[in-house]
Amino acid sequence: MHNFQCDYTEGAHPKLMAALMQTNMEQTCGYGLDPYCEKAREKIRAACEAPNADVHFLVGGTQTNTTVISAVLRPYQGAVCAAQGHIAVHETGAIEATGHKVLGLPCENGKIHAAQVKAYFAAHFASETAEHEVQPGMVYISFPTECGTIYTKNELADLHAVCKEYDVPLFIDGARLGYGLADPNCDLTLPDVAKLCDIFYIGGTKCGALFGEAVVITNDKYKCDFRYMIKRHGGMLAKGRLLGIQFDALFTDALYFAITRGAVDSALRIREAFEARGIEFFGSSMTNQQFPILTDAQLAFLSRNSLPEFWADAEDGKKIVRFCTSWATTKESVDTLVEDIANMPI
Amino acid sequence: MHNFQCDYTEGAHPKLMAALMQTNMEQTCGYGLDPYCEKAREKIRAACEAPNADVHFLVGGTQTNTTVISAVLRPYQGAVCAAQGHIAVHETGAIEATGHKVLGLPCENGKIHAAQVKAYFAAHFASETAEHEVQPGMVYISFPTECGTIYTKNELADLHAVCKEYDVPLFIDGARLGYGLADPNCDLTLPDVAKLCDIFYIGGTKCGALFGEAVVITNDKYKCDFRYMIKRHGGMLAKGRLLGIQFDALFTDALYFAITRGAVDSALRIREAFEARGIEFFGSSMTNQQFPILTDAQLAFLSRNSLPEFWADAEDGKKIVRFCTSWATTKESVDTLVEDIANMPI
Amino acid sequence: MHNFQCDYTEGAHPKLMAALMQTNMEQTCGYGLDPYCEKAREKIRAACEAPNADVHFLVGGTQTNTTVISAVLRPYQGAVCAAQGHIAVHETGAIEATGHKVLGLPCENGKIHAAQVKAYFAAHFASETAEHEVQPGMVYISFPTECGTIYTKNELADLHAVCKEYDVPLFIDGARLGYGLADPNCDLTLPDVAKLCDIFYIGGTKCGALFGEAVVITNDKYKCDFRYMIKRHGGMLAKGRLLGIQFDALFTDALYFAITRGAVDSALRIREAFEARGIEFFGSSMTNQQFPILTDAQLAFLSRNSLPEFWADAEDGKKIVRFCTSWATTKESVDTLVEDIANMPI
Amino acid sequence: MHNFQCDYTEGAHPKLMAALMQTNMEQTCGYGLDPYCEKAREKIRAACEAPNADVHFLVGGTQTNTTVISAVLRPYQGAVCAAQGHIAVHETGAIEATGHKVLGLPCENGKIHAAQVKAYFAAHFASETAEHEVQPGMVYISFPTECGTIYTKNELADLHAVCKEYDVPLFIDGARLGYGLADPNCDLTLPDVAKLCDIFYIGGTKCGALFGEAVVITNDKYKCDFRYMIKRHGGMLAKGRLLGIQFDALFTDALYFAITRGAVDSALRIREAFEARGIEFFGSSMTNQQFPILTDAQLAFLSRNSLPEFWADAEDGKKIVRFCTSWATTKESVDTLVEDIANMPI
């Protein structure tokens, strides 16, 4: 059975496992102050062309989102995001647990736009009773979004410009950043992303690591005392070098990009196979997540060999399902699925 | 150079690394619902002789403490502990971040006692203005304590009895649990610990794992919806099986106990070497942490080959330092240190 | 100029002021433990036909909502309410400040319905990934709602039945409770309200008091240690008797009901005057808040003598405004307004 | 029976009651934006000789402390105070409820000193593991302290200088500020206080008002968006003018100072009466709270006519009790008590 349910079904890329094995008996200090973390930080700064950025390593996404968001907001401020954004719906109130409201805006294809955000800020600050409402204090977007779509360079630049106008940070949740950058329509590079926001993170968990997210803070205003915040939120890993060793490997010889490009290539093969059969999709993802809309009969047919994840009900009794690829997806898995798609009932 | 600064300077025990390597390319579901976590849970229940306990795996200690404490307390309650307890001083306010006060009691050798706790509870509930103060809602102890000492079976039973009398849980922070059970004077077994508290955790990070703490909830009252709490606090690891695989290995053939016994044996060799030279100690630890009180000359002499951690200033310009052993401490390291102790200036 | 902007533009009903004056130099103990508070509690229990209810007095609405909501929810739970509910939009994140998400449901006329709430609960608990989302832990409604509408006895009973089915409390924000009970179409009495929920509060601030809200807890499950919660949230008034004295006066000779009935009578005179001119309304309020939709010319005409509050923009350049009446609204004010309405341009 | 238990046993000074009565039927806007609040702000700025200060009115002390402290601290910071400070022991964890640890320093007579605070700050920032502990982010003192003592001008200036050196605010809890300034040994004026800290509040509740505390922010750095914080913490009174009217009256013709001077005169008559009998005191208060140490027989004798508050047990079976005076203490009450003291058994 080939599991396409999510992009974290396996362990880590063999090169990362090898690096962990090789360094296992070395003695280093803890808490991310070791030479491996330092080396990984340097490589990430170089890859981002952001020599002055602060780079911090955390274990998981929810932890990263709560730590960053509560670090940058004042108590009465909230995080503006897409109503379907991860922090709005899938983190069991972890953001609210830090005292902050998530301010969801209506979205299409998972994205929010500069004009919409600007209108929201303008309305708040123009209100005579503004202080009776949560003040928007940052903008959070996912790249790619929860439904696999991406922002163009212009869209991101516009969003960042609005944030600057209101002096609030733009924070990009890059849990799947590499898969977004590997979208064939993407006109953004990693340095572009670093330039067009104030804080973002490069996801490791879904892109080849056992675990780990690298927070990159490019705006000096948000750098102060971030390590206190990590510790306060339970995110300071004792054997912090495990994060450094993995990110060092990911950013050696551009492994990170090779991994994500490969996964997107696989995903697009699957997409094309569905398109060839006239299947429609939820959203327009060109990244590692594909959301075809299938009949029960089609699902049953494919499920003999391949396991997608149920996403949502669609019209006419059809179902939206998610097929995820990752660094670990094998050619054999994709071949099998593609062949089954070609033969499934219409 | 032999590093004795802490018990998390290396990676994981080779058997755990082997298990992680061997399972690396398997596909499992995430979030701790995989078969490896289930197997590890079963083995832990068996080792604890607690067949009905709930077992949850978290990544680190601060995260575990905040998740457990905020799960069991009502908002206006606090956690009673030793004034020098880990949650009181070394977690950057992570407990307060969940809205709860840490209620530190004076302590000796890191321990608090039943009579003292009972008096504290009694005074609170007898007060006419009780509602103007934080209500003690649980008792937190570390086993072994932050200075390496342990509770006897009677002491723990007495403490638990007071907790039951006031219907509050006793929570044991077992970050170094195995090292405490390996103290030659310890009259407690793992099943005893499980019986004499309501919740505790078995530390992995300091006892042979890359990371990981196993929370064991024996009192039904505190089991409900604990996974929501884990997620809310950013502690639900996507590739949760990494925790299951490691704890499965630790509780196979009693590896956990072999590891911790070995480390304590090493620590006691070091202790004896110091005692043979008439060196005094801070506290009376018989576990894997030793706190000799040394002159600068002695420290300089030992530091040519071995690295202890500075702990605190003592009288007469002397310094308390900490020598930690772990599963990874080699015979060679201990031999070198013991020989240097024998030759250091008095 | 006659101010109809809100229902808290004046001080307190003269009988309350007289009671405060008369008792001013008496000496009593503080924090709500005085005889006046006790007397008021008894009268409220009697008026509610809830002899076993706990009654607590707080100063204001936001404070009351946060104290009640954080007292009844477990950390990972949220409060289900209308998307336009007061706690969702007008309290600067005070609920989130206690760590809880507000779970807004789509609403019409400010109300949410039993079937809708049941579906929401059912969907959550049926989800395989429920623990990745905030668990609905209570239902919050306003009576009357923010747009002046009320629930029927059947609607409230149905909502309460759903809450009981899921073992969560139904909490009624009664900041304007008396005005709702005075709606001529209301088929609920105060004892009905007390029976058909688990906790509610009787608003004083908007119904004749200088300030003050009386929380009535009818379900034993939510009574424990509530005074600790009040203190923790800064709501324990030192001179607590000020609240007792006022509520004692309000519930003497049914003053509370006389006050709110009078205000609604005035509001309905205003409503009829608008209806006579063919003016349409936002919502269908028959309580003390009226929301006519007016042209700029009409607004300008009325504003020479009477001050409404801007509410929202409507179609065709028209504006929704709010005219509020209260215990203090004079016949002269209403006469003036009604006459102006009769003469305003159409 | 003459009640000396606390300084909030009566309502408000007659002049404040008169002002509330006189303005009762006026219509004003809410939330502290009315002309009475504005007038009171102006008078307070003038009395403080702080023309640029921001002045905000809140209802009670706990609310004020939580609002100010959570407004100025970053999440990982705590408030340094005397271990016996009000926020450390008597607010049911209200500060921790906002996510912040209270960092209690050992104190004598309720006071902390500049050298002690400096050493604490220096130790924190010198520590290599500072980020594992709560960062001291402000200094909180009470003036007068919880045991009635005061700081000298030099002591306050020194404390403020340390705060400036570390760029943290000094916050003075002035719940009884006027009683402190009326201490015959006090060399500070209200403008001195305003100059020698960054934020403080002038307590109304204990000094003649029904309720109310006036927060004065003199340091621009802490002014931004404070009204959002008030609302978020449930402190924005709907009929905010009630606070303005009272503070306007208190700061008209220096009524505030007349009230507090009178109360301290009464307290010192009581003190002298005890001293004349050779009675010892807990602490050295020269303000409105007196803490004689009495035998049971003496207490029983005095308690026939006068009611003090039990404070704590003392040596030899004696008891520390508190006699409080206030604006409302009558000459007759003091005469009676003084006479009884003269006649009590020794």
Share of β-strand residues of chain A: 15-25%
Number of strands of chain A: 13
Helical fraction of chain A equals 25-40%
* Largest sheet: number of strands, sense, barrel closure of chain A: 7 strands, mixed
Any overview of this molecule?
The structure is a homotetramer of 346-residue chains. Chain A is α/β, with parallel strands linked by helices. Chain A has two domains: 2-7 and 256-343, Aspartate Aminotransferase, domain 1 (Alpha-Beta Complex); 14-254, 3-Layer(aba) Sandwich (Aspartate Aminotransferase, domain 2). Chain A contains 13 helices and 13 strands. In chain A, helix 5 runs parallel beside helix 6 (153-165). The first copy, chain A, is globular. The mean pLDDT of chain A is 97. Chains in contact: A-B, A-C, A-D, B-C, B-D, C-D.
In short:
With 346 residues, chain A is of the alpha/beta class.
Q: Could you name the key traits of this structure?
A:
homotetramer; alpha/beta; Aspartate Aminotransferase, domain 2; globular; four-stranded antiparallel sheet; seven-stranded mixed sheet; Aspartate Aminotransferase, domain 1; 13 helices; 346 residues
